[in-house]
Fold this protein.
Amino acid sequence: MSNISRRKFVSWMGLSAVATVALPRLGYGMSQLGAEQLKSGSYVEAETVYGKIKGVRFDGVNVFKGVPYGGRISGDRRFRRPAPLEPWAGVRDALELGAPAIQNPRRGEPDPAEDCLFLNVWTPANDGKKRPVMFYSHGGGFVGGSGGAGGQDGANLARNFDVVVVETNHRLGLLGFLYLDELAGSDYAGSGNMGIADIATGLKWVNDNIAQFGGDPDNVMIFGESGGGAKTSCLYAMPEAAPFFNKASIESGPGVRMMTTDMAAQTTEMILKELNISPRNWKKILDVPAADLLAVQAKIPFTPPFQRIKGGITEPFAGGLGPVVDGVVLPNHPFDPTAPEISKNKPLITGWNEDEYTFFAWERHDADSFKIGFDELPAKLEPQFGSDTPKIIEAYRTARPHASAPDIYVAVNSITLMGLGSIEIAEKKAKQNGAPVYLYNFGYKSNMKIPGTDYEMGTPHAMDITFKFNNEVPPKEGEGPRWSFAGDKPDRYVASHKMAELWSTFARTGKPAAKDVPEWPAYNLKDRPTMRIDTNCEVINDRFKIELDMWRSIGRL
């Protein structure tokens, strides 16, 4: 891989890891059920195959938090499959979030811990009704985040659309993706994929238990944003996950291809060297405190790039943590060379936000990029695109004659970060001639400005989370203002309802639909229809044709 491409995409993945951890705390959800909920609500119990749990019913939703779905993964279980989950006697409280995976502390959540296999459930009722199940994998790259992040609180989605929502914590970073298969023997087979294997274990828990929560174990949708989209891409190609879901949505995180074993082995070698552990004494890493492992993890790139480059896919290099095409847990790249045969008959949604890049500029406090003119634009793009830069600028100025230089800079970076991979997934799924695939662009425009500029965020990375969970709603009486990327225009409530309805209808039927939204046709290679999601949704055929023809001509798509 060229150094230019590597810098570009390592930078992206490093930044995407903070998508769910660096935001100011949203005004949705909390680490434990608050005093008002416990006072105004009533306790409810549910039976699982491991024992009874106690949650609370509040405002029309039963909420169970911190439910264990796997056993111990610390000590001699580090880097291995979980120990069996031990049944418990009596009734176990499910009123607080479980520990998130090892990472920096998360505001409003328990301290991170190695033993982190917990999930949260939101359901309209534990009544035996067969509701669709929406199983969400959180963002944060492969190193951060949790199933308890505020913006993805599942109460509104469950209440307003009669679905069951489930979210897991699972291993992340070095503890979730250190590849030891070549050093450690059969007990550690699949070690480089424990983070996504945990999610598959969570799906099995759903299959075994969700009927007791009013959900249908035979109608499960998996979905996820950013790193959660990449995890969903992997689950879509994983044999052990395949029996436990029926449809999927990959959002602003297209996982076309993952790490090779060569790449993963180099990363392992680098980490052991950093810890002063020889490969023959690899077992010493089992005794290294988790805090020390986290410190080592911080010294390496978060994950490697997975994008197509001119001349082929990524070349091995040292550094990076993420799922591994190991032939055990993940037999093949999720969408390379084709869409996975194992999910041929499972409908899919995939897409991205129109202005993904503004999130990363906001996170880096980058105001300068929004003050450039066209004379400065080539120098801004050349470090990433080299000799292709003039062709890129020409295509975008032709397609968007009224766009400013910052507009083009944002558009180029947004589509290369999340758009090209999403289109590649849609095209390969369509070529499979199996279940339909639906392509979208989320386009609601926030009026929030990038600090230090007059440039509006538009539709940044991660803004879709609160929309699809229907968490952009008017505040209740006495409730304070809620912070989100969405800005303060009241029409965001309309866009949020429509997006949540599209997603929940897809979960129910396999075809996204919503009131006052045009029929969303399946993607095909003739018309290339894309649903643009906003307060007024519209289907656009062959969207970004000029730009995409250019990206194809230079081998980026």
